[in-house]
């Protein structure tokens, strides 16, 4: 049947010994992922950047750690487990439940990306879509658990789950003991609670910084004493949690030094940066650490910073859009609206200028029927590839020097 998270201790919900015990319990069933220094990101950001590649787990997410630690604690007579998740916790529970021979049911919000639904089903779980948010899915999961006698595995507020997630921090500090800062994505708080617990025990001087999307700053609001629920639209579905956990709040309040928020545009840019520099794919939540580093450079300059790449399960259509918007943001893909006389040779003159400047035409579209321009004029939308923003500006100037009226569309 459904139950509350594992009872907390007399002080904080978990201790450093709980994290160490989790590391022993999960053993080799979860990969010890690489912790690597990034020379290029360090040069770009001004911080000394170390990356923890949790995207290299079998399910491409750190969530396996906490899920397995909880599953291993269940009695042999367990009838089955149920979890509420937008994807990564679902896959962690599904994968390790199947390995252990435990039937698993996953309740997901109706808007969960198709790739996460498919991946969870392929891992052997029964998937139930219910509600438009994690909170509504959580309510449905509790009802199913009660009806079918299943054990509920909370995605972040169970101390055994928190301790399992903390093994990420244990490995990071074993590999690079002298880190100044751990920069950690935060949704409900399970990861940062576990990491902060072990990190402060190993190095009391280390600085713990959580990162949330501006659309879902639930833990930051909780730490600031704001109780109202806040939500919005975000590409970071994995940390889109409207209400931080109770147990996680206790640990974050005791051990986490600061929580920052980042805008959507920064996360989009960070996804593309990771692809270009590290040649890896991260999802929105997995890009938040780099987004914070780029959004608040002065806070981290000259510091030795450990960042967790928490997941790589991004919808391919979303990834494609992020790439194209990133190219537009950098001035490498540009759209110009050009007004010219509607007469033979006008298009050839435009393309000649493009060729002379060294840009590349991707798409051309004429527009005569709509708009308020003269009947003797035509509008052309021209999408071109350039080296950078300065190259695009040179193209616009060259077109204007040839007498064309040019407007450009910018991406924020």
Architecture overview:
The protein has about 400 residues and is an alpha/beta fold. It folds into three domains: about 30-60 and about 160-325, Rossmann fold; about 65-155, Rossmann fold (3-Layer(aba) Sandwich), CATH 3.40.50.1100; about 330-410, ACT domain (Alpha-Beta Plaits, 2-Layer Sandwich), CATH 3.30.70.260. The chain is built from 16 helices and 14 strands. The chain has helices spanning about 15-25, 40-45, 65-70, 90-100, 115-120, 135-150, 160-175, 190-200, 220-225, 245-255, 265-280, 290-295, 295-300, 315-330, 345-355, 390-400, and strands at about 35, 50-55, 80-85, 105-110, 125-130, 150-155, 180-185, 205-215, 260, 305-310, 335-340, 360-365, 375-385, 405-410. Strand 4, helix 5 and strand 5 (about 125-130) form a beta-alpha-beta unit. Helix 3 (about 65-70) packs across helix 4, helix 7 (about 160-175) packs across helix 8 and helix 8 runs parallel beside helix 10 (about 245-255). The radius of gyration is 25 Å and the shape is elongated. Belongs to the serine/threonine dehydratase family.
SSE layout and pairings?
Blueprint: H1 16-26, E1 35-37, H2 39-45, E2 48-53, H3 64-71, E3 81-84, H4 88-100, E4 104-108, H5 114-122, E5 126-129, H6 134-148, E6 151-153, H7 159-175, E7 181-185, H8 190-202, E8 207-213, H9 218-223, H10 246-255, E9 258-262, H11 264-278, H12 288-295, H13 297-300, E10 304-309, H14 316-329, E11 333-341, H15 346-357, E12 360-367, E13 377-385, H16 389-401, E14 405-409
Parallel strand pairs: 2-10, 3-4, 3-6, 4-5, 7-8, 7-10, 8-9
Antiparallel strand pairs: 1-2, 11-13, 11-14, 12-13
